[in-house]
Write a structure and sequence with these properties.
single chain, 248 residues, alpha+beta, 2 domains, eight-stranded antiparallel barrel, rod-shaped
Length: 248
């Protein structure tokens, strides 16, 4: 099967070839009889006029095609740029850009250790992910969520993997001193066609352990994060209260 972009190029050049062929055929029909009669009476002038006419037609057609090509490539570039800015659409779940919250479980102890607020954005360049982690105990026992600091921060870029998965590499900090980097896989689903959910795993080389996570999207607009993530932390605390403390 021919790729869509190749098919566009084939149609574009076929259109130009057809235009040139029709123009040449029409020109030949229009001047053939006149040239035949004029050549018998004025052979030299007929040759000179013919050469001049050929050059004039050549440059006229050249400039018409050049202008058409420039216009086509301008439109094609604008189309590509617009497509590049569009978010990535997964096969079953569609666009997964937005604000997410999740519960994070240690794969060894099976205990929920923290929750995260995650921002996912995508374009032709791939996926960009940024997140802030919060200790579960700190969130659940805080009287004022604005005073709950993040215990980790991470960001990274990645790509679509399989039909409804995202894989990316991240770098970040755990606390104030411990640097961390690793790899993450998110799998997106719509249970019963309802709210968009995700599950996944990640391994932190700096933390020397792996984690399991599950979460949900709470907003589709990544530009509207609240100051100090107060609204998102409230939603995260509510979500963590709904999740089991242990997977064991």
């Amino acid at each position: 099967m021919i790729p869509i972009e190749d098919e566009r190029q084939i149609v574009h050049h076929a259109r130009i070839a057809a235009f040139v062929a029709v123009f040449v055929a029409a020109a030949e029909l229009a001047i053939s009889e006149w040239v035949h009669g004029a050549y018998e009476k004025y052979p030299l002038w007929t040759v000179l006029i013919g050469i001049t006419a050929f050059l004039a037609l050549f440059f006229a057609v050249f400039w018409v095609i050049r202008l058409y090509e420039r216009s086509w490539h301008t439109r094609d570039t604008e189309r590509r740029e617009l497509a590049f800015k569009q978010p990535i659409t997964l096969l079953k779940c569609g666009v997964v850009d937005g604000i997410w919250i999740d519960a994070v479980y240690d794969v060894y102890t099976k205990e929920c250790v923290e929750g995260s607020v995650i921002k996912i954005e995508s374009s032709g360049a791939g996926f960009y992910v940024e997140g802030w982690g919060y200790d579960r105990e700190d969130l659940q026992h805080a009287d004022d969520l604005s005073k709950v600091p993040s215990c980790s921060h991470f960001s990274g870029t990645g790509r679509q993997w399989d039909s409804d998965c995202l894989i990316y590499a991240y770098e970040g900090m755990k606390g104030l001193k411990q640097r961390d980097k690793g790899a993450v896989v998110y799998e997106f689903t719509r249970p019963g066609g309802s709210q968009l959910m995700m599950s996944g795993v990640f391994f932190g080389f700096g933390l020397q352990t792996a984690f399991y996570l599950r979460g949900k999207r709470i907003g589709e607009k990544t530009k509207y994060l609240s100051p100090d993530l107060q609204r998102e932390k409230l939603r995260l605390r509510e979500f963590l209260c709904e999740q089991p403390q242990s997977l064991a």
